[in-house]
């Protein structure tokens, strides 16, 4: 039996649906998905099987115009993920079309795409008319020579099977890179932190978009098969602490419960989750925080 395996980088603007597609392909939630832009910080690798091929998805942060150190590190991680991949899939939102951001990515692909297979996936096709979709497909293929174009809805799964089958034929021949039952190569501590951060992002909406991070400080396996997880939520100001706590601690309680339930479902066992909030005014400038997120502090310069 000839096996195949390779890395596939999903690139695109924030909110293009890269995390949703990763999770659909893998069949499990390995990447944080929220309505907010720029929620993916680290390059999360989800592993999917298609016939004799193992597809390793590198879900990169959205490519955008960086302003701060964290932004710059995220953009560097995204291009780094593309540069290391065997196949690159550019995701474009059908209803947004060719934005300035997409134009910048196409320019970047001029360098990074050399000698690589690059496919186009037009996502959220249910949001536009057929004629607009065809015009966008034509426009994008005139701007860049894509190996293949797919029209998909990552959320609903439309067109995703065809994309996965095509990718299985494009990755190089070779042994599988991960054990058959492994779905992500992120340490569980980081996945646990991402799950809690997602719940914070969903709950707090516009109040604290990017000024908090979560770290798993301690993970203790218990004899009864359960696990005790201690996490710290870092915020930059005292006032933010109150927002996360909420009235009579209701917000943090709800976040903790939602994160715990998802962790239990993900790990298929009982979880005891304990959250603490700490104020660290300069966490955005601390190299250790970047390492915890799988980003390179130096890339933010």
From TrEMBL:
Region (G3): 59-62
Region feature (G1): 12-19
Tree of life domain: Bacteria
Species, as recorded: Epibacterium ulvae
Binding partners and assembly: Monomer.
Subcellular location: Cytoplasm; Cell membrane
Family: Belongs to the TRAFAC class TrmE-Era-EngA-EngB-Septin-like GTPase superfamily. Era GTPase family.
Ranges where the KH type-2 domain occurs: 204-281
Protein name: GTPase Era
Function: An essential GTPase that binds both GDP and GTP, with rapid nucleotide exchange. Plays a role in 16S rRNA processing and 30S ribosomal subunit biogenesis and possibly also in cell cycle regulation and energy metabolism.
Entry-linked HAMAP family: GTPase_Era
Membrane topology: Peripheral membrane protein
Residue positions binding GTP: 12-19, 59-63, 123-126
Region (G2): 38-42
